[in-house]
């Protein structure tokens, strides 16, 4: 009988392997070379081929090290992709909580597909998602990973570089990703910069110039229409809030090209109210240019300005009467409520212009009585609080009316209520609300000293 195959002291009998012939027939092998079966059948007794193990635990060969490095690289890429997806998901959650326009909910279907082809847009969206995640602690991180806030700042810086590169493109005015990327950069600054200066820079100097460059011959795609609706809401408020010159009157041609999915009628009165806000801000800028330096209060100019202001005031009252009827007709009245808040603020804003000068003390002008002013302040506070509590309209759209209400808030209760609402906006992620609150407190202190 052939000798048994030698075994080590720890190998045990189960470690004995069959020869190739026995393994093929799936029979027990006696062991040794040759085995009894191969001798009996006159076969060549060969050991089975030893397959290389998939994972080498001991050993430092070059190919094992290379495979390990490649595996780590692939794993890091996969983790990076997962991280980006998580922050894009967080961005989508942010969008659901902050509906800037009626069609803003269509953003996932109309704008998000651009992320696959635009590094600029992808980075800007990641920056917002990561910053929002950092504040809500909604994304977990592991040891050695960057924090969401660092990822947000890094993505923001990278997107700015991508924007600079994109602006050198001769066809930049036609690129939807650059238009939306510029807006999202401005939105990030609203969330991160208490001064609001970066927001003004990107909204006024960035997006408005891109819209101008496109010109009236540019076909209005759905994402571009959505963007202009958004830009119009924010820019109308910004110019009134900061007393800045608006480019919106020069872009009114953008109202004409609409597709069938867009609202051809003013469903909730907001479009008409925005037109009144643009009209008022344009008039206000011209008003102060003309009144500045006037020496003779009997000039026909003073009378004409009073009548023009009354005409704007009359248009606001007419809008208000029509909008009350809409309350029973619209399914979702959130943006109609916002338009009502704007109407009350616009009446106070217009009256304030004439209160700065003594020329209209005994002349016709859109000046409000103390009782009327108090009524509009209370209306702003009631409706703004309702919007913040029961709707998904972001608080940044209330900065203009809250600032105007603050300019005429007399008692401590009204002022505390305004600051409380601004604090809620701050807690929802918009740092710039602190600037509005600080400006109001400085104004109240100045007014107190002046009265004393």
TrEMBL record:
Keywords, in A-Z order: DNA-binding, Nucleus, Transcription, Transcription regulation
Organism, scientific name: Aspergillus thermomutatus
Domain Zn(2)-C6 fungal-type: 18-45
Protein name: Zn(2)-C6 fungal-type domain-containing protein
Entry's Gene Ontology molecular function annotations: DNA binding; DNA-binding transcription factor activity, RNA polymerase II-specific; zinc ion binding
Pfam families linked to this entry: Fungal_trans_2, Zn_clus
Top-level taxon: Eukaryota
Gene3D superfamilies linked to this entry: Zn(2)-C6 fungal-type DNA-binding domain (4.10.240.10)
